[in-house]
Amino acid sequence: MSNQTRQVSQLEKLSLSWLEKNSRMNPAARHSLAALAPGLVLQLNRSASRTLAIAGAPGSGKTTLARMLAHVLTESGRATLVLSLDDYYLPQARRKELARERHPLLAHRGVPGTHDWTRLLDDIDALREGRIQGLHLPVFNKSTDDLDPLHVWRPVEVAPSLIIIEGWCLGAPPQSESGLIQPANAIEREKDPEGSWRAMVNHELAACRADLQRRVDHFWYLRVPDWNCVLDWRWQQEQELANPRLKSRAEVDRFLATFERIVVHMQTTCADWADCVLTCDRSHRIEIKR
After folding, report:
1. Beta bridge partners of 288
2. What residue ranges define each of the domains in the chain, with the CATH number in brackets?
3. Are the C-beta atoms of residues 243 and 72 closer than 8 Å to each other?
4. Helices (H), the chain
5. Whole-number mean pLDDT of the chain?
6. What does each C-alpha distance from 117 to 19, 85, 124, 131, 245 come to in angstroms?
7. CA atoms lying within 13 Å on the CB side of residue 195
């Protein structure tokens, strides 16, 4: 057995072991992701990348992918840290203010404009520059729909060699003005008939992309089969929470309605802007799109 073959085998075993202990993926999905892991790890180690962004629709598996890669890379000698966009939502009180001041749909976390984007960029910059003394990373609690208290935020103890940022809309390009005209669903027809919310979110999306392009070396996208999969998987995730806020599939549908436009846009354009596209089937088995 060659050294490279041995290395690939070790990385696959390390990945599978982590997935078995830390994910709820079915066996076939775990094995498909573990089989991909060595190639992804070796690709990252061959590059001089400092920052990787992984995007994908809610429930697609991007968080599991990011955490698995961070574990394997760290165990292999390259200190890696994961930032989750989900931890950078604005506090509930601030989103309620935005709902009163700008548009009612901003009360719901999700789209660009509902994140503490400045804090995220500041944390990325500090980590890239090794300024970790006293740095604590925020923790957002989905069960309470609010930030956890400061005393439970994550301290950074080691300056990472690689930062992986995972979040559903990272890297997405804005839509054209003509693409914003037609409502994507009933929520947009009822709550945003004039399109002001769509235009505002699209403007924020463009700004977010520009900010990340100056800080991120590579963008990966995890593509899912269709929008119905997103709804099904999110409902499954809610059922696994200790105190789910969304009590029915209908509530999940309403909550994710504000995500739909951008998710569909990313699904159809990812080949144009993502450096690597991974595809996920309905059973969460993952492969690289060539």
Report:
1. 278
2. 3-288 (3.40.50.300)
3. no
4. 3-22, 27-46, 62-75, 92-101, 117-128, 186-191, 196-213, 227-240, 249-273
5. 94
6. 30, 9, 11, 19, 24
7. 11
d(CA 58, CA 168): 6
Model pTM score: 0.95
Gap between the Cα atoms of 130 and 135, Å rounded: 10
Identify which of 248, 60, 12 has the alpha carbon closest to the alpha carbon of residue 170.
Answer: 60
Query: In this model, does residue 15 exceed pLDDT 70?
Result: yes
Work out the angle at residue 161's Cα, subtended by the Cα atoms of residues 157 and 162, and round it to the nearest 5 degrees. 105
The span from the CA of 19 to the CA of 26, in Å, is 10
Average pLDDT over residues 63-69: 97
Check if the beta carbon of residue 23 is closer than 8 Å to that of residue 30.
yes
Residue 201, token pair as written in the block? 């979110």
Q: Kindly tell me if the per-residue pLDDT of 6 is higher than 90.
A: no
Residue 17 confidence (pLDDT): 96
* Helix (H) / strand (E) containing 154: strand 154-155
Cα–Cα nearest to 111, from 188, 166, 61, 168: 168
In this structure, the strands spanning 154-155 and 136-137 are antiparallel
For residue 63, count other CB atoms closer than 10 A to its CB: 21
Q: Which amino acid is at 154?
A: R
Which tens digit of pLDDT belongs to each residue from 94-149? 999 999 999 999 999 999 999 999 999 999 999 999 999 999 999 999 888 999 99
How many whole angstroms separate alpha carbon 18 and alpha carbon 64? Answer: 10
The single-letter code of the amino acid at 211 is D
| Distance set, CA 122 to CA 127, 137, 145, 179 (Å) | 9, 11, 23, 32
